[in-house]
Design brief:
Elements (H helix, E strand, L loop, with lengths): L4 H17 L7 H15 L2 H9 L1 H14 L23 E3 L9 E2 L5 E3 H16 L5 E4 L4 H15 L1 H4 L16 E4 L10 H9 L5 E5 L4 H4 L4 E7 L2 H10 L4 H18 L1
Parallel strand pairs: 2-4
Antiparallel strand pairs: 1-3, 4-5, 5-7, 6-7
Length: 266
């Protein structure tokens, strides 16, 4: 078959169009990493950044395990810069008082939690109980409206300047996710209780992460809350400890940026 220059050029354009729609090269983790490199090199402590940067193959493997295990927004970033919509509600919210054979105690009868977090909470409480530790749940899911009223109340009492370090404005509260619990006395004394010490040491084994660690106010935006734990999943907690200095905020910021840059490349 004879191809004229015109036909050859037409075929070239055709295949160029096809390959533009169906790229030959799959987007790699390295491609995404190049997009997040500048941010993490400036945001993260040198020790954390260097460990990730110098061990990328292992890091990518662990990261993909964590992302694959995410089911219901467990890893969504919620903070003073990343808000949930007013209409956001977690899936399968349950009243903890209705849970049969609870291993944990309830400070109130009206505490709700996402179902995905309740079972891991049971396992955690059961493990604690075997060591003579009782887990007391003092707060769980809060709706956007509830948080708005609470924040407004605190502003009226203490002023907006002081409130911003211990209470989240509506949409910026992790409690709206339905995967967060407050424990015990909900004050600094909790850290020195047997329950508080056990949680700090063991919570990660059951997928629970301390959201606002001590001396990290400049990173999290909030003062230390020894009683505030968020369910992320066991693999995510391992990942956080191994690669991010066990700082939840660093890990969630990274995952949020990673997802956004990957979406752009796709």
């Amino acid at each position: 078959m004879y191809f004229t220059p015109k036909k050859i050029f037409s075929l070239f354009l055709f295949f160029a169009f096809i390959f533009s729609i169906y790229p030959n090269d799959k987007i790699s983790d390295e491609d995404i990493y190049k997009k997040v490199y500048t941010y993490i090199s400036k945001r993260f402590p040198k020790q954390i950044f260097n460990k990730i940067n110098n061990n990328r193959e292992i890091f990518f493997k662990d990261l993909n395990v964590v992302l694959k295990n995410e089911k219901e927004d467990e890893l969504i970033l919620v903070d003073k810069l990343n808000f949930l919509d007013k209409s956001y509600e977690p899936k399968n919210i349950i009243l903890l008082y209705d849970v049969k054979d609870r291993k944990y105690l309830l400070e109130r009868y009206d505490i709700y939690l996402a179902k995905i977090a309740e079972r891991p909470l049971q396992k955690l409480a059961e493990a604690a109980k075997k060591e003579g530790i009782e887990i007391m749940i003092s707060s769980g899911y809060r709706s956007y409206i509830y948080q708005a009223n609470l924040f407004s109340k605190y502003v009226n009492l203490y002023g907006k300047k002081d409130v911003q370090f211990f209470s989240a404005p509506p949409g910026a509260s992790q409690h709206q996710l339905g995967t967060v619990i407050d424990l015990g006395s909900i004050d600094d004394s909790y850290a020195d209780t047997a329950e508080g010490k056990w949680m700090f040491k063991n919570a990660w084994k059951y997928g629970w992460s301390l959201s606002y660690p001590k001396d990290m106010e400049h990173i999290t935006g909030y003062k230390w809350e020894s009683w505030h734990y968020r369910y992320l999943g066991v693999e995510a907690c391992k990942f956080q400890k191994e690669w991010f200095g066990d700082i939840q905020q660093y890990m969630l910021e990274f995952i949020d940026l990673w997802k956004k840059e990957k979406a752009k490349l796709n």
